Amino acid sequence: MEPEHFQPLVSVIIPTYNRAELLPDAIESVMQQTYPEFEVIVVDDGSTDDTAAIMSQWSDRITYIRREINEGRSAVVNLAVNIAQGNFIAILDSDDVWLPHKLKRQVEVFKHFPECGAVGGGAMYMDLSGRPFGKAMIPSEIIEYKKFAVSMCLPGSHSNEIMRREAFEKVGGLDVALRRAQDYDFWLKLIRQYPIRAVPEVLMYKRAHQGKRPYADIETIVKCRKLIASRIPEPELRRKHLAWMWFQVARKSFASGRVANGSKFVARSFFTYPFLISTKHRRLKRLFWLIEEKVL
Predict the structure, then answer these.
(1) pLDDT tens digit string along 10-32?
(2) Disulfide-capable partner of 253 in 56, 176, 186, 261 (CB 3.0 to 4.6 Å)?
(3) Where do the Glycosyltransferase 2-like domain residues begin and end (predicted)?
(4) Please, which residues have CB within 8 angstroms of residue 138's CB and are 6 or more apart in sequence?
(5) What's the rounded Cα separation, in Å, for the pair 151 and 226?
(6) Of 198, 208, 287, 223, nearest to 250 (Cα)?
(7) pTM of the predicted structure, to 2 decimals
(8) Cα–Cα distance between 247 and 207 in angstroms, integer?
């Protein structure tokens, strides 16, 4: 257990690109934290909107870094970590928001479990106007490697987790070569070396954008996820991961009205791993749901 008066500095990193309308909500959600020891670093990844002008109102409280060329989220996060002063790192995407008790609840977990490399939490989706919708995503208090390696699911992903700086640096930060799923890749590397825990309650809202990720992007997702899968050393676990990935791609295909493609991906999922993946990854049951919902 950490010392009684455990109150480390948390470096909050907000990467942003052309989100001048949403960025203030993200920043204000940090400023309203009940945990007092934090610094904020906003890295503007070459925005062409009014981001720079908006940031002027926080010039006395926030470190603002403006990049002239868009280099991608992974590159700017890695840059910010290099200049961060805290021993703990928290990343918040500029379209998401935290609840006021978020940092406090997570730092408390580190106090009681100092061996942890990261602490996550629950999340909900919200629309562009900030209204929450859908079901709360509540994780288990202990994130198990084998379960995570299959589903690659941490609610809110990078916008929700807080990690030890030494852990971030030990696994090499975010992979700038990946165009998508960089957060999944990072957590997979981290969980193989450190325990990860979570606060089983909603700590943040993740923004859902209509049409944000078109069907055409599936090719990029698959390419990145296959590369991530190749880094899973256990053969059976790697097959389970790929089988669940193909099934997820199938669901996206069905939702986009591409039934033929979806059927092809379902077949590939079962060919990759024909057995039950786990009690939480029941593909046949989910297919029946799609049929009942007339998606198929």
Answers:
(1) 999 999 999 999 999 999 999 99
(2) 261
(3) 11-170
(4) 122, 155, 200, 201, 202
(5) 13
(6) 287
(7) 0.90
(8) 24
